[in-house]
C-alpha cells in the first residue's frame, strides 16, 4: 500500500501518468484511512522475526523510519512510505531461521555498502559526517549544483561521478562500476520507471525521507541509518550525540520577548515563498527562542510540501511588523543588501525589520548541509538575542 503522501501524489498527479481514475483515488484514500486505524503495524513481523528479535535502534526525534535488530547480524529498516528493507551482514546469505517467504516484499541490502549511487542530495552530507563518503561513487547532482565545498570538489574531480539527473541516470555506468546500493529521494516516485529499471539491474534502491522529518534533529538522526548501511554506526552515533549536545547548550534565556521572525523568499512571479507553520524550519526558530510571524497561515493546496506561496499583499499584512526578516537564498538566489530586498517590492520599505536594519539572509549551503541543524539553531539564537553582526556565522549573514 502506498503511503499517504504517495497516495496524494498519485491522485493529484496532473498528467494522470499512473492511470488512476477519480473513483479509484477515492477508494485508495478510504482504504488508507481504514488501515491507519491499525496503528501502521509493519509487514514481515511473523514468528520467524519475532522469535529472533534483539532490540530496536534508539530514535529520539526521527519518526520517518525505524530499525529493528535480529540475530545473525540481520536488521530490518521500516520507512514511513511503507517500504521495508532487510539489511544483512554482507555475507549475502540468509540465516537458517529466515526463508524467502519471510522476506517477501522486502528490499535486501548487503551491508556495509561499498559502491553507492546517491541521488538524494540531502543524504550526502549525512553520509560524509558518518565517515562513509569514500563509498559514494556516483551522484545525480552535478558539480555546479553543490553548495557544500567538499562535495563539490569530489564531484568536480570525478571522485564522485556525475551520471545524469535522477530521472535519467547512466544505467551502463551503474553496472560497469558494480554499484551495490542506490539511494533516492522521494522525487523518484515521479519517475517510478527509473527505480524499477535500477532494481532490474540487481541494485537495491533505498528511498530516503529525511526531508519529511518535522523535528530539526530528526533529519540529523538519519545519520544513524546511514551508519548502519555503511558500517559506521559508532561514528554516526558520536556525530548525533555531538549535535544534540549543541542543541541542549543553546541559551534561550538570552533572547528577550521572543521576537517574531519571517522566513521567506520572493519568486520570479512576485509571489512570496514561505515555510508552512510546524515545519522543521519554523521549529528551528522556536527552539532558538523566536516565534514564527506567519503562524496560523493555511495553504489552499493539499500537498506534502513544506513551503507555500503567498501573494505579496497577504505577506505584507502578516509580516510587516515582524521583528526580524530572514531571506531564503536557496530558492531564488541571495541578496547582497537591504536595497536588493526593497528593489523586489516597494512594500518592504514599510517593514519594521527593514527600518530597524534587522534583515538577514541564508547562505547557499544552508539546506544541503543536513548535519548543520544544531549549528543553524545556534546561529538563529544569536540573531534573536540581538547579534549586531554575523562574525563567525556559517549559515546566515546580515544585510546592510
Query: Which percent bin holds the helix content?
Result: 25-40%
CATH homologous superfamily designation of the largest domain: Nitrogenase molybdenum iron protein domain
Mean pLDDT: 88
The percentage of residues in β strands lies in 15-25%
CATH class of the largest domain: Alpha Beta
Radius of gyration: 23 Å
Give me the count of strands: 17
CATH architecture of the largest domain: 3-Layer(aba) Sandwich
Distance between the termini: 52 Å
The major beta sheet can be summarized as:
7 strands, mixed
How many independent structural domains?
Answer: 3
Q: Shape, please?
A: elongated
Q: What count of helical segments does DSSP give?
A: 16
- Poorly predicted runs are 1-43
What does this structure look like?
The chain is α/β, with parallel strands linked by helices. The protein has three domains: 40 residues, no CATH class; 204 residues, Nitrogenase molybdenum iron protein domain (Rossmann fold); 148 residues, Nitrogenase molybdenum iron protein domain (Rossmann fold). 33% of the residues lie in helices and 17% in strands. The protein has 16 helices and 17 strands. Strands 11, 12, 13, 14, 15, 16 and 17 form a seven-stranded mixed beta sheet that branches. Strand 6, helix 4 and strand 7 form a beta-alpha-beta unit. The radius of gyration is 23 Å and the shape is elongated. It starts with a helix and ends with a strand. The N terminus is likely disordered.
Structure, briefly:
With 400 residues, the chain is an alpha/beta fold.
Amino acid at each position: 500500500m502506498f503511503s499517504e503522501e504517495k497516495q496524494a501524489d498519485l491522485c493529484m498527479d496532473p498528467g494522470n501518468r499512473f492511470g488512476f481514475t477519480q473513483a479509484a483515488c477515492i477508494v485508495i484514500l478510504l482504504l488508507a484511512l481504514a488501515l491507519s486505524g491499525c496503528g501502521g503495524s509493519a509487514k514481515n513481523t511473523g514468528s520467524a522475526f519475532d522469535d529472533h528479535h534483539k532490540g530496536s535502534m534508539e530514535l529520539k526525534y526521527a519518526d520517518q523510519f525505524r530499525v529493528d535488530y535480529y540475530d545473525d547480524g540481520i536488521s530490518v529498516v521500516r520507512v514511513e512510505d511503507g517500504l521495508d528493507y532487510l539489511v544483512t551482514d554482507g555475507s549475502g546469505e540468509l540465516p537458517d531461521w529466515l526463508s524467502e517467504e519471510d522476506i517477501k516484499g522486502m528490499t535486501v541490502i548487503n551491508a556495509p555498502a561499498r559502491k553507492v549511487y546517491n541521488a538524494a542530495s540531502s543524504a550526502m552530507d549525512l553520509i560524509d559526517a558518518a565517515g562513509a563518503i569514500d563509498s559514494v561513487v556516483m551522484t545525480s547532482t552535478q558539480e555546479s549544483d553543490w553548495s557544500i565545498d567538499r562535495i563539490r570538489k569530489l564531484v568536480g574531480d570525478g571522485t564522485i561521478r556525475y551520471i545524469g539527473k535522477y530521472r535519467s541516470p547512466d544505467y551502463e555506468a551503474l553496472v560497469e562500476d558494480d554499484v551495490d546500493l542506490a539511494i533516492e529521494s522521494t522525487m523518484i516516485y515521479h519517475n517510478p520507471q527509473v527505480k524499477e529499471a535500477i532494481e532490474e539491474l540487481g541494485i537495491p534502491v533505498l528511498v530516503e525521507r529525511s526531508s519529511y522529518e518535522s523535528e530539526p534533529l530528526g533529519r540529523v538522526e538519519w545519520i544513524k541509518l546511514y551508519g548502519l548501511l555503511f558500517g559506521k554506526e559508532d561514528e554516526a552515533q558520536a556525530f548525533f550525540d555531538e549535535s544534540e549536545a549543541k542543541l541542549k547548550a543553546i541559551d534561550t534565556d538570552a533572547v528577550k520577548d521572543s521576537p517574531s521572525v519571517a522566513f521567506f523568499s520572493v519568486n520570479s512571479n512576485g509571489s512570496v515563498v514561505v515555510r508552512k507553520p510546524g515545519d522543521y524550519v519554523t521549529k528551528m526558530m522556536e527552539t532558538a527562542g523566536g516565534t514564527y510571524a506567519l503562524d496560523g497561515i493555511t495553504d489552499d493546496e493539499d500537498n506534502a510540501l513544506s513551503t507555500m506561496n503567498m501573494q505579496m499583499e497577504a505577506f505584507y499584512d502578516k509580516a510587516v511588523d515582524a521583528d526580524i526578516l530572514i531571506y531564503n537564498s536557496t530558492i531564488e538566489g541571495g541578496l547582497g543588501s537591504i536595497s536588493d530586498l526593497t528593489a523586489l517590492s516597494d512594500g518592504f520599505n514599510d517593514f519594521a525589520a527593514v527600518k530597524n536594519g534587522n534583515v538577514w539572509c541564508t547562505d547557499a549551503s544552508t539546506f544541503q548541509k543536513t548535519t548543520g541543524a544544531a549549528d543553524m539553531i545556534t546561529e538563529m539564537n544569536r540573531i534573536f538575542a540581538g547579534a549586531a553582526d554575523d562574525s563567525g556565522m556559517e549559515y546566515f549573514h546580515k544585510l546592510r
